[in-house]
C-alpha cells in the first residue's frame, strides 16, 4: 500500500489546548471532524502518550485553535515536538482565554468544547465533545494537512494518528533534514552556505541538528 495516499484525506492542522490545573497546555492534532450540527459536536483523536490527553480527561473541556496557511510554523514545533509535562508551551505564545481555555491568537478560528464521551483505541483516545462556542479570528485559508506537508515541508509528530515513518514514504530523496521534527530544507541557498544562526522554521532547532541525506 502507498501510505502517501493518506495525505489526500481532508485533514486540518490544529492546536488542541486545555488546562493542567491552572496552567495552559496543548498539542498538535490533525484528526478532528464535526459529527453533528444540532447540537454541534465534534470528535478529536489524541495519542495516549500526549500529556494533553490526560489533562483533557481531568479538565473535561478543551479548545481547538485552527491554524491557517499564514500561521507561524513554529507553533507546530512548539506544540508538536515537545511535552507539556516538562514545558510551558504557552509561555512564549500569544494567546487569549475563551470560556476559561487558552486559544492561540495566530489562528484563523477557534472552538471551545465540553467532553461528553470517549472511545479508547490501542494508541489513541477519541474524544466526543459538545461545542460551547466558536468564532473566526482571521480571514485567511485554514492550513490543511496536505499544505503542511507539501508547502511548509513539515512532518507529523510520532504521536499523530497520521504519522508515517520516513522509510515508508515514497517522496524523492532530500539533502538536509531536521533530525528533531523532520523538516526538509529545500531553499535556494545551499544548506552549507546558510549562517550558523539558521534555525529550523518548525521546531527552532539549530543548524547543527540537520543531517545530510544521500
The CATH topology name of the largest domain reads: Pnp Oxidase, Chain A
Within CATH, the superfamily of the largest domain carries the name: Electron Transport, Fmn-binding Protein, Chain A
The CATH architecture of the largest domain can be given as Roll
The string of secondary-structure elements, in order, is: EEEEHEHEEEEHEEE
- The CA-CA distance between the termini, in Å, is 25 Å
**Low-confidence region ranges:** 167-174
- The count of DSSP E runs of length 2 or more, i.e. the number of strands, is 12
Question: What summary fits the major beta sheet?
Answer: 7 strands, antiparallel
Tell me the helix content.
Answer: 10-25%
Task: Report a brief summary of the structure.
The chain contains three helices and twelve strands; from the N terminus they run ββββαβαββββαβββ. It has 214 residues and is mostly beta strands.
Walk me through what this model shows.
The protein is mainly beta. The protein has helices at residues 51-59, 74-80, 145-150; strands at residues 14-20, 23-29, 32-37, 40-47, 61-66, 95-98, 101-104, 109-120, 124-136, 176-178, 184-185, 210-212. It folds into 2 domains: 11-147, Electron Transport, Fmn-binding Protein, Chain A (Pnp Oxidase, Chain A), CATH 2.30.110.10; 164-214, Rubrerythrin, domain 2 (Single Sheet). It has 3 helices and 12 strands, in the order E-E-E-E-H-E-H-E-E-E-E-H-E-E-E.
